[in-house]
Specification:
There is one protein chain. The chain is α+β, with helices and mostly antiparallel strands. The protein has ten helices and eight strands. Strands 4-1-6-7 form a four-stranded antiparallel beta sheet. The chain has a four-stranded antiparallel beta sheet with strand order 3-2-5-8, with no helix packed on it. A hairpin with a 2-residue loop joins strand 6 and strand 7.
Length: 293
């Protein structure tokens, strides 16, 4: 019976193909192809590489790949009877006579393994597997516990904040109302300032100042006696009275050129040396006559 190498060589020669052509087509070195043809399998890399080389060679020359692999395995691993016969042929004749014929005993019947023997193996296999349902369930439990903890912490913080707000709001409810400062003069509303006539004392010492934006807008800030300063913006065409003063009226005028002023219902003139913008004017009983010249 021809060997694998002989079969492949015959196929190649029948097709008229050289080893160089097979090497170029299969990317297998000619050294390995020659080793296959001469059945020198020890030269080959071995394992899956040898089988791949044999399949590629057989496919190229038109030989069945499975038959080629079967011949290779038969040559590499001959049956046990052939190995025994080959070993007996190699023994000397004297050894054959003196050595009794050995009859291979049948292999002992394999008894069924006891369950106890395989328990550890089954346990190790189960331990090495990844149980995805267990991991998912465990992760869900962890997330659920974390959400509960966060909700409890949030509720505690909310309760603490409500307690603090209640503690701070109680004194404010029970605290007595603060009396307005004695020296502070009440601020009349814009409607009452314009509708009420200027108040004058019997002695005629009360100062009542009225401002009118004749040609444009102007920002105005005033302070009556020792009261708190107030400010407003007077639009073009508007008129506004400053609260009556007993001692003096201090004015800060954004643009005095657009304003007309009346003091105690008399038309007054702002001194010409007063700055045009952001000017300061103080009207008292002592300098009142300077505004009527």
């Amino acid at each position: 019976m021809p060997t694998l190498g002989e079969e492949l060589r015959q196929k190649r020669e029948q097709r008229g193909v050289t080893l160089a052509e097979i090497s170029e087509a299969t990317r297998i070195g000619t050294r390995f192809l020659k080793a296959i043809e001469t059945d020198s399998f020890s030269i080959l890399p071995g394992g899956i590489f040898t089988r791949s080389f044999i399949r590629a060679y057989a496919k190229y020359v038109g030989m069945n790949e499975d038959e080629a692999i079967a011949l290779y395995l038969q040559q590499v691993n001959p049956p046990a009877s052939e190995q025994t016969a080959t070993a007996e042929e190699q023994l000397p004749a004297a050894t054959k006579r003196s050595t009794p014929t050995l009859v291979a005993a049948p292999p002992p019947a394999r008894s069924e393994p006891s369950p106890r023997r395989f328990e550890p193996v089954a346990y190790r296999q189960a331990a090495s597997r990844i149980s995805w349902p267990t991991i998912v369930i465990g992760g869900g439990i962890v997330v659920f516990v974390v959400l509960i903890v966060l909700a409890v912490v949030k509720q505690l913080n909310k309760g603490g904040q409500e307690g603090e707000s209640q503690a701070t709001s109680v004194p404010q409810k029970n605290a007595p109302a603060q009396a307005p400062p004695q020296n502070a003069a009440p601020r009349p509303s814009p409607s009452t300032e314009t509708q009420q006539p200027p108040a004058q004392s019997p002695s005629g010492t009360t100062l009542v100042v009225k401002l009118e934006a004749a040609t444009g807008d102007s920002w105005i800030r005033y302070q009556v006696d020792d009261a708190k300063p107030s400010s407003f913006t007077l639009k073009k065409g508007e008129t506004r009275d400053v609260p009556p003063a007993q001692g003096q009226v201090a004015l800060s005028l954004g643009n005095r050129l657009v304003l007309k002023i009346r003091i105690n219902d008399r038309e007054a003139i702002i001194p010409p040396d007063t700055p045009k913008f952001n000017s300061k004017v103080v009207i008292t009983r002592e300098n009142l006559q300077t505004y009527f010249q």
